[in-house]
Amino acid sequence: MADERENYSPNLIRMWRAFRTTKEMCRDRGYEMLEEDYQISLSAFAAKCGRQDGEVDRSQMNFSCLPSAEMAKKYTAPPTAKNPDPQPDIGKIWVEFNGDENVGLKQLRDYMAHLVDGQYYSGVMVTMKPMTGMALRLLRGAAGIAEGPKGGVEVFVEQDLLVNITKHELVPTHVLLSKEEKDHLLKRYRLKETQLPRIQVTDPVAKYYGLRRGQVVKIIRHSETAGRYASYRWAI
Amino acid sequence: MPATQKQRDVALHHADIIEQRKRVEKDVLDAIIDLMDFPEARNADPQRPSPADALRFREAVAIFQPSDYDALIEERNIAAKCGYALCPRPKRKAPSAARKHFIDTSKGVEIVDRRVLEVWCCDDCARRALFVKVQLSEEPAWLRQGGFAGDIELMVENAGEHPRTLPLRLKGSSSAPPKPADVEEHDAALAWQARDDALADLAVERGEKPGRLSKANRELVQDKIRERVATKAPEPPSLPTHSSHMAIEGHVPRTSRNEDDDEDDDGQDWDKHLPG
């Protein structure tokens, strides 16, 4: 392995790791993904996205994926009398690796326009450096406005994706609950959702799973006495 | 605990304040998006901008804080434009791609970031842009009292062409109310109307626009005047009959009482009880 790495530039290895984490993130969220896709080897990655000069061609790294049937089911609200056939609140996702030195309002708006043109439901943008403050402000307000895609845009910095944080031993398992499971939980414990403990949507793990406000995650920890211990958190 | 109407009003008032803040932030964002591709004419001259451009720029920038203005400059630079919003030229290119550059200044050679070098197209634009920046108010626009950040001046060569437009102060519509039969009622109605007019004028003076959130919420702070009605004739205060002036809240301390009681106090009482 060490020998293999010496043949490639550090930048290419960085991008390979970020790419793998992004793929794993999409798989963990429930998108359809082949195993050879998220376990791509360095040499295969270099053949696919590397350029002659040993640097990375980021436009080759972009990909899109579709939600699996299981995920679509999880994101579908239970049918009601008013809405007997609810549509899933999830769809095709477009992941783009941006190669610009600085990402501002202009790039973000171009990206949003691209998502809307391509009929994508949501998007993930991976940038080299953190975005400008105004772009973040646009992003915060973008979920509700007509300009962006329905599912919103998430932005990650390459640096944050070098390591898959959910594989760390101190990070417990997070499982997203569907609307139906959430209702069941609240009924079982006779709670209102405001009585649950909270998790911020800006929490690194919440960002990894793309939690939305109002969803509930089940967190399963190891426990010395009970074997495992489940707690629930309301994303806010 | 059931929420009272008062609590509900307070909650609504604070929700309105947050709402207004969000609206102002959105206005700032829209203004920056608008000014990013400014000016539209390719051959616009930053030294003598057209009156329409200058007016639009001044109005958009009036709600900015200096940090918002910095954000605008940053966004324009990312789009490879000169940081001054009235200049259509691309930003200056540094002589090389090195991260730091040596620059000859009047104080000698300085080492500066490449990024700093590439903000403006020329030093003239930098001066004009910063001339605007120093006029911006540090106070966020949603906290400003009216007329505070009213007019932004531009550094232009053709100052005569730019009309100094003062905001027109419109009096409230003077639609005559139907004349009531009773004169007293008529006077009362007039008084109420005068009060409303005065409040509206005050609101305009505070810089509030009709339909926007009022800073003085009349529902929350109400001054009710309660007349004091005398039920009996006033009487002057008098000393209570049998309590000494040494009393502390009705209690007379022992030391002061002893002084009054022990009249047979003499210096020799220590040997009174001695035999013989």
Written description of the protein model:
The complex is a heterodimer of chains A (236) and B (276). Chain A has 2 domains: 160 residues, Dna-directed Rna Polymerases I, Ii, And Iii 27 Kd Polypeptide, Chain: A, domain 1; 71 residues, Eukaryotic RPB6 RNA polymerase subunit, CATH 3.90.940.20. Chain A has 9 helices and 8 strands. The longest helix of chain A has 20 residues. Chain B has a domain of 109 residues: Serine Threonine Protein Phosphatase 5, Tetratricopeptide repeat (Alpha Horseshoe). With 276 residues, chain B is mainly α. At the A-B interface, helix 6 and helix 7 of A face helix 1 and helix 3 of B.
Write a concise synopsis of the structure shown.
The complex is a heterodimer of chains A (236) and B (276). Chain A has 236 residues and is an alpha/beta fold. Chain A has helices at residues 2-6, 10-29, 35-38, 42-49, 69-74, 105-117, 133-142, 179-188, 204-209; strands spanning 63-65, 93-97, 122-127, 153-157, 173-176, 198-199, 216-223, 227-235.
Features:
heterodimer; A: 236 residues; alpha/beta; Dna-directed Rna Polymerases I, Ii, And Iii 27 Kd Polypeptide, Chain: A, domain 1; Eukaryotic RPB6 RNA polymerase subunit; 2 domains; four-stranded mixed beta sheet; 9 helices; 18% strand; globular; B: 276 residues; mainly alpha; Serine Threonine Protein Phosphatase 5, Tetratricopeptide repeat; two-stranded antiparallel sheet; 7 helices; 2 strands; 37% helix; elongated; protein phosphatase (chain B)
Uncertain segments of chain A: none
CATH homologous superfamily grouping of the domain at 18-87 and 120-158 in chain B:
Rtr1/RPAP2 domain
Q: Categorize the overall geometry of chain A.
A: globular
Shape of chain B: elongated
- Specify the structural class of chain A: alpha/beta
* pLDDT averaged residue by residue of chain A: 88
What is the correct CATH architecture of the largest domain in chain A? Answer: 3-Layer(aba) Sandwich
- Percent strand of chain B equals under 5%
Biggest interface: A-B, 14 and 14 residues
Question: How many strand elements of chain A?
Answer: 8
Family (chain B): Belongs to the RPAP2 family.
Catalytic activity (chain B): O-phospho-L-threonyl-[protein] + H2O = L-threonyl-[protein] + phosphate; O-phospho-L-seryl-[protein] + H2O = L-seryl-[protein] + phosphate
GO molecular function (chain B): RNA polymerase core enzyme binding; RNA polymerase II CTD heptapeptide repeat phosphatase activity; zinc ion binding
Region (Disordered) (chain B): 165-185, 210-276
